[in-house]
Amino acid sequence: MASFGAVSQTELGRRRQKLRQQRRARLAAVVWQMLAASAMAGGLLWWIAQPAWLIARSEQVKVEGNQWLSDKAVRSLVPLSYPQSLWGIQPQALAEKLESTGPIAKAKVTRNLFPPSLTVEVAERLPVAVAQPTAVLRSNSDKEKVGWLDARGGWMPSDSYTAVRSQNSSIGPGSIPGTQPQRSLPTLKVIGPLEQYRAYWPKFYQGLSGLTVKVFEINWQDPNNLILKTEIGTVHLGPYSSKTAEQLKVLDRMRQLPKQLDSSKIAYIDLKNPASPMVHLPELPPSLESSTRAQN
Q1: DSSP state letters, 42-102
Q2: What's the angle, vertex CA 228, arms to CA 231 and CA 274, rounded to 5?
Q3: In 10 A of CB 247, how many CB atoms?
Q4: What is the pLDDT of residues 127-174, one digit of tens each?
Q5: Which Pfam families match (predicted)?
């Protein structure tokens, strides 16, 4: 019994020693794993922080899908400061900010690893008019305010849009096979301070675009009298109001006016009261007026 007890004590000592060795081995393994993970994380951070993974200039932003806006114009809308870590860029946030600007209807931003770059794919809102602050551009400040308007009132500088050939245009009679028609920029002109009519523009343009009467110019300089230059003559609408949509409808119904009255004999068409449109004739010069009275 004494011998058995002595053997048992010896065996227990060996087992305790073995357990201590196993615990030390496990602890060493955990320490090594932590060191290895830290080293890998540090190496990854060092790798990410290398200049090779920076968006250092706007040329590293590739633009796709633009047909009207120039690449430079789209890049100017991307809210990035350079240099910028490729890994710190949030594509979804960039896309949402782009879509909040006037000319961009839809945007998708993708990060590219090789080479480090961004791809920005956009769908544009097309320009519908030229906007300029005054009829005569007297200063550089006025010239800088000339730009393009889209249907929602989004504004872009005059050099932003470029005329391009339509990719999906059908070939009509008389067109040359193998060529595509030129998609020209709009010629409709809107004159006046942008802040004066921007809030009204989307609804106003919606009504304007449905007209069969061609409108060449919209003068919004005087907020109390909106003036249109159209193919049937100059039209005075008065201030923009809830009646404006009805005024445009009345204008469209007057499209046959040139067949009834020579447009050169019309000073302007008064639609301030759409229920009672008036055609104003030019005033006679004083000398001619006196002569006419003498004859009578």
Answers
A1: HHHHHHHTSGGGEE-SGGGEEEES-SSB-HHHHHHHS---SSEEGGG--HHHHHHHHHTST
A2: 100
A3: 23
A4: 999 999 999 988 888 888 999 999 989 888 888 776 543 333 332 333
A5: POTRA_1 (PF08478)
